[in-house]
Design goal:
five-stranded parallel beta sheet, TIM Barrel, alpha/beta
């Protein structure tokens, strides 16, 4: 019979319990046993919720204290030498050290998981690395569920995906050369899972939706020729796109089941059915990455056609991917209006949708006719709602021209005008924008939201925090200060709260990395800006210093990528609407006397399609949206942008086409390796390579930062280098922030002395 299946459940808890427990462990407030107990409690709850929702195939080992890729790295004992691991088991402290670093060892690199805003810890590979099974986490969590009376399907990250996502630290070494060692470990683990009672395992190979090299294709064949015989039956899961030209390869692998993402690529089911296969097909019909209700009638049409051609007994109904990327439970949202609530589904509700579709196939549509009727009503109501469409926004968008996306002069001319106006020294120092969001700041914001702190008192509090922040920056000697962003809850949510077309949740949290959670806004309608959003605080901060205050904005692509975006029009249309709103803010900041404006676009690379053939279309509209937002200013106003945790190699022409006067990038974890890409490309504008990894609790010394800056000056002309941290400082504390910024400024001063003036 057709089974309802799930690929993964959010780990963080409905109220971010995992985040809070993990951070308490890091600060020493609880011990490892208490953290493990909280993890066990969350897993038990999640398994029970899935069972209660009618899910017949429930995952285990989808839970992680930090990241599923890091879990696999720990499982395989792939600990970098700098962590001095003597061998044997990888415990919690070593696990977290790899993710966060220690005083003696920098953290492993972090980057985006495919085209999501989830970050994973990048595996590191060397030629003489010894891999060995160093944890039993998949086996332990399978047994844990069994002891609770829940039969699960353990989830493993596929060997080829894990190796392909890693980074070789030895020149000329291909991580795929470790494949046989990895397969030895996987085969042993699968045998143990079979011995413990597991009939199936889910192995995730999302790499199947990418452009694969011949070596990767061969590695996939070798992997499943061996693992298909090693233990339980294998459900091979692909997601985030279509198999495309990898379809024949995927269908040829000797696995028992294949999962297809039919939200991102609904058309691929026809090609798979036409090709014919004896595998169990898992149909990903419920969107695991967005929060809109599934059109159950449309999904059921696809499922019914598959049942007719493939047989209902060889089908599973599932979300398109793990629900890791979805908030936990809509039932907590007691402040959303009825219309919006009726359009949404979070993880728990998505499981209910999966169960309804599976039951409809098993027992017929009449068995769930009430659920289908209610869903059809909600889908139709959203489609015709007057809240979605704004004729004025559409008219303005239609009038946008190419001239609106061009600066008046080329960068060399702008650079001279800006240097004369700003009077900055060589290696100018600045930060990325935010400063520590202390308990006092968070408490004041919460009290204001609850009505316990008046508007006037809250403004006075924010003015005090801003005044103190600017004074500290002046005392430290930063050349370009910022106001600190104490009024902002999140770099996207803050703007969405002031734009029409956005809605907000109270508990719509999703994991971004480690214990970092974000609460994406919901873009449900046409976007416009009713009033200025940031001018008040940037202008106030400028009155507190003689140095040029940098105005801070989030760019249109990042607001798009880090929101739950409406799915009833092209994403590029929504992005351009956001760009017009940001354009108005840029113009108002310039009119208020702000000479430097930063428009952050850390998500530009994240939004890149997974297939190379689709890149240029996306880059054209994404870069166009940034330029539309940045180009109403005069040549004398300096436009910055910031990008982090991305691979830039393949999109350098697009980054150059953004034509920001200054770009700041994350480079400290890679020891400035990323900067070489900009040097090889001969990137024409100014660059601020990050020399302080703010995602780690380490406090790098002035000597360490100076060394990084020397490496930067060796490949980028000194008169085009800025000095800054990797990212914003909201998650750091004031003592470490002030110490590290002193070291950063010392490094800049050292380089000013070392590097001769230009001829």
């Amino acid at each position: 019979m057709t089974l309802a299946a799930n690929l993964g459940f959010p780990r963080i808890g409905a109220r971010r319990e995992l985040k809070k427990a993990t951070e308490r462990y890091w600060t020493g407030e609880i011990d490892a046993a208490a953290l493990e107990a909280e993890g066990a409690r969350l897993r038990a709850d999640h398994w029970r919720w899935q069972s209660d929702a009618g899910i017949g195939v429930i995952p285990s080992n989808d839970f992680s204290f930090y990241d599923q890729v890091l879990d696999t790295t720990a499982l395989l004992g792939a600990v970098p030498d700098r962590f001095k691991h003597p061998g044997g088991a990888v415990d919690l402290d070593l696990y977290f050290a790899m993710a966060r670093g220690t005083d003696a060892a920098p953290a492993m690199e972090m980057t985006k998981w495919f085209d999501t805003n989830y970050h994973y810890i990048v595996p590191e590979f060397t030629r003489h690395q010894t891999l060995r099974r160093a944890t039993d986490k998949p086996l332990t969590q399978y047994r844990e569920a069994r002891a609770l009376g829940v039969e699960t399907r353990p989830v493993l990250l596929g060997p080829v995906t894990w190796l392909s996502l890693g980074k070789s630290k030895d020149d000329g070494f291909d991580p795929l050369d470790h494949l046989e060692a990895v397969l030895d470990i996987y085969a042993g683990l699968l045998a143990d899972l079979a011995g413990a009672g597991a009939d199936w395992v889910q192995i995730d190979e999302p790499i199947l939706v990418l452009d694969l090299s011949p070596a990767q294709q061969d590695a996939l064949r070798r992997t499943y020729a061996r693992l298909a015989q090693a233990g339980p039956q294998v459900m091979l899961a692909s997601y985030f796109g279509a198999l495309g030209d990898n379809r024949t390869l995927a269908l040829s692998l000797p696995v028992a089941g294949l999962h297809l993402d039919l939200v991102r690529a609904p058309e691929q089911i026809d090609a798979v059915l036409e090709a014919g296969t004896d595998k169990v097909l898992s149909l990903g019909l419920v969107d695991g990455r967005n929060i809109w209700k599934t059109d159950l009638a449309a999904a059921l049409d696809i499922a019914s056609r598959a049942a007719d051609l493939h047989g209902p007994d060889r089908l599973q109904i599932a979300p398109s991917c793990s629900l890791l990327h979805s908030p936990v439970d809509l039932q907590q949202e007691d402040e959303l209006d009825d219309d919006l609530r009726s359009w949404l589904a979070f993880a728990v509700q998505k499981l209910e949708e999966v169960a309804v579709l599976a039951r409809a196939l098993r027992e017929g549509a009449r068995s769930v006719e009430n659920q289908l009727a209610r869903n059809a009503h909600d889908i139709a109501a959203r489609r015709v709602s007057s809240r979605i469409h704004n004729p004025d926004v559409k008219a303005r968008q239609a009038a946008v021209s190419d001239d609106d996306k061009r600066r008046r002069a080329a960068f060399p001319a702008r650079q001279k005008v800006q240097q004369a106006r700003l009077g900055l020294p060589r290696f100018p120092t600045t930060t990325i924008g935010s400063f520590p969001q202390t308990k006092e700041v968070r408490r004041a914001r919460a009290d204001h939201r609850k009505g316990l702190l008046s508007d006037a008192d809250y403004d006075a509090f924010l003015e005090g925090e801003t005044r103190a922040c600017v004074a500290k920056q002046d005392a430290l000697g930063l050349d370009v200060p910022v106001h600190g962003e104490f009024e902002r809850n999140d770099m996207v949510e803050y703007f969405g709260e002031q734009l029409d077309g956005f809605a907000f949740t109270r508990f719509g949290w999703v994991q971004s990395y480690g214990s970092r959670c974000v609460k994406p806004p919901v873009i449900f309608g046409d976007v416009s800006r009713p009033a200025a959003m940031t001018v008040r605080w940037s202008a106030y901060a400028q009155t507190l210093t003689d140095k040029p205050m940098k105005g801070m904005l989030t760019g249109p692509v990042t607001i798009l990528q880090w929101s739950f975006v409406r799915d009833d029009q092209p994403r590029r249309t929504t992005c351009e609407q956001i760009a017009l709103a940001i354009r108005d803010e840029v113009a108002d900041l310039e009119a208020a006397g702000i000479k430097i404006i930063q428009i952050d676009e850390p998500a530009l690379r994240e939004g890149l399609p997974l297939r190379r053939d689709d890149w240029q279309t996306y880059l054209d509209w994404a870069v166009g949206a940034f330029r539309l937002s940045a180009c109403p200013v005069t040549d004398a106003t300096q436009i910055h942008t910031h990008m982090c945790y991305s691979e830039f190699n393949d999109i350098m022409p697009a980054i150059a086409a953004m034509d920001a006067d200054v770009i700041s990038i994350e480079t400290s974890r890679s020891d400035m390796e990323l900067l070489q890409v900009f040097a090889d490309f001969d990137y024409p504008n100014d660059i601020g390579p990050g020399i302080w990894d703010i995602h780690s609790p380490r406090r790098p010394s002035a000597a360490e930062m100076t060394d990084l800056l020397r490496k930067a000056a060796a490949v980028i002309p000194a008169d085009r280098l800025w000095v800054n941290p990797d990212c914003g400082l909201k998650t750091r504390g004031w003592p470490e922030t002030e110490e590290s910024l002193r070291n950063l400024i010392t490094a800049a001063q050292a380089l000013r002395t070392e590097v001769s003036e230009p001829a």
